[in-house]
Amino acid sequence: MLDSKFIIFLILLISAITVCGTQNVFAENRTVTIPFGASNPHFETEAPFWYTPPILTIHVNDTIVWLNSDREVHTVTSGKGVDRGEFSQGKMEGKPDGYFDSGPFKPSQSLAFTFDKPGTFYYFCTIHPWMNGAIVVSQDIPDYATDAEGNKINKWPVVKYTDDKMVETDLSWEPHIILTGEQVTFVFNFYNPATSSEFMTSTPYRFVIVQNGTEIFSSEDSTQYSGAYKYFVFNKSGPVEFRLENIGNMNETVRFSTFVFDNPSEIKKEIPVIQPARNLQLGQETQIVFVGPPIAALAFIIIWAKWGDKFKKKRTGEKL
Ligand SMILES: [Cu+2]
Questions:
Q1: Which residue has the higher pLDDT, 6 or 239?
Q2: Which of 93, 179, 199, 225 is most solvent-facing, going by the fewest CB within 10 Å?
Q3: How far is the CA of 273 from the centre of ligand 1 (A)?
Q4: How close is the Cα of 237 to the center of ligand 1, in Å?
């Protein structure tokens, strides 16, 4: 017969394998290739991009493998290389930001880097600083709110008590899932837990928001009756704590927490130049070709309409 301890051990082992397996399924490996000809900054290069693909969107904890398929030594260095304008002025030094740096790597060698934080990360080649690329690391935003430890918040408003159980505080925030740059409305009420009745008199309080150990908002106020509301817009992502302090001047604090996510619409997509001039897409520098001439033609028509008659008369006069 199987020992019960052994069965428990077996269950734990299977759970552990399942958890590890699930994490592996979600983290992906993606490849960025440095194509043949990438070292050539000029028109005649066949390389469609400096790095292929030039902009790649991945998730937190995904790994990028850069593969050098060129016949020259290159680097993959985080930061910004030179743009077309700087290159034309002879500027040959990019600005590394220190997040990652492959150092020189030879043809057919590769570099792997795991992105463990969200954001837009530019990179370039220090040897050929016109070679630019970017990795956009997006954050998975859950479809439910959690506290700062990641526990799902099942019931709204969230209810907390002061340590001495003298005050019950209900706090709700809208929207429940907080994104940077979006206004959040906080609504809170104070109750007497013994009688389940609202505080019907004006109650002093201090509403405080703490993010990454820093107080980013503080408001000392009094409720009209049992509750009040506040507005706030977060600039940064990360765990946050909402405190209601000194409720009713009783030196009692209740704490709530959640997580602020980077607003996907705020992730910057501005990239220096990610491909050689001959392979530029419509909408980049080729705008000069397509937008420039019509504007010049229009300007000519306007000038002709204003001054053309005088010019014609002058010529006619000459003939007579
Ligand atoms: Cu290079």
A1: 239
A2: 93
A3: 15
A4: 34
